[in-house]
Amino acid sequence: MGPAGGSDAAVGRVAHAGAGGVVSRPDLTRRLGASARVTVVSAPPGSGKSVLLRSWIGEAGLRDSTGWVSVGRDDRDPQRFWLSVLGALRQTSAGSRLVRELTPAPDLDGWAVVERLLKDLAPLQDRLWLVLDDVHELGSAEAQRQLELLLMRGPPGLRFVLATRHDLRLGLHRLRLEGELTEIRGAPAVQPG
Asked: Which stretch of DSSP H or E encloses residue 153?
């Protein structure tokens, strides 16, 4: 699964969802399909988080309704991250109709991008998935707060899957209390005794 073509690839790691080999994990794919508004998939490196998510997207036929962003170590700039999110959502069938294109600008503010995205997606009728792979790499505290805003205020049809190696510093406790958070965690590593 490589970066998508076009201008979106230049601003971040936008990839086509559902591409790649399929690994059948029926219990996990069932949990993903029945998950709440926000799903966190947390496991150590090399445990197969990305392969699991790609397989689930392919098996469930969600490729046209899933935007995928692979967050990289160099994604410290909130503008770059949000342009990647916009680009990924615009590659979906619903997002291509609702999410307006945005070009990089020196004064482009991540908060304004999130507010505009919330406004663009307000009429969303269909289910739309946003997968943020390696979201633990999102080094900007400001971008994390902006992501939290999108998680809390996104329309009901917008679903999030956050793949990470460790717990995120997001206000997920509120979603947990409201029953809007599904957590899929890998087994902890066994330390040699």
From this structure: helix 141-153
Asked whether residue 159 carries a pLDDT value surpassing 70, the answer given is yes
Check: pTM over 0.70? Answer yes or no: yes
> In a 10 Å sphere around its CB, with 0-12 CB exposed, 13-18 middle and 19+ buried, how is residue 123 labelled?
exposed
Task: Render pLDDT for 59-78 as a digit per residue (tens, 0 to 9).
Answer: 889 999 999 999 987 667 78
| Residues whose CB is less than 8 angstroms from the CB of residue 100 and which lie 6 or more positions away in sequence, other chains included | 116, 120
Report which of 73, 25, 47, 21 is spatially closest to residue 163, judged by C-alpha positions: 47
Q: Which residues of 37-74 are buried (b: 16+ CB within 10 A; e: fewer)?
A: bbbbbbbeeeeebbebbbbbbbbeebbbbbbbbbbbee
Question: How many CB atoms are closer than 10 A to CB 128?
Answer: 25
**Residue 151, Cβ density class (10 Å: 0-12 exposed, 13-18 middle, ≥19 buried):** buried
Judging by DSSP bridges, how do beta strands 38-42 and 14-15 pair with one another?
Answer: unpaired
Name the helix (H) or strand (E) containing 120.
helix 110-121
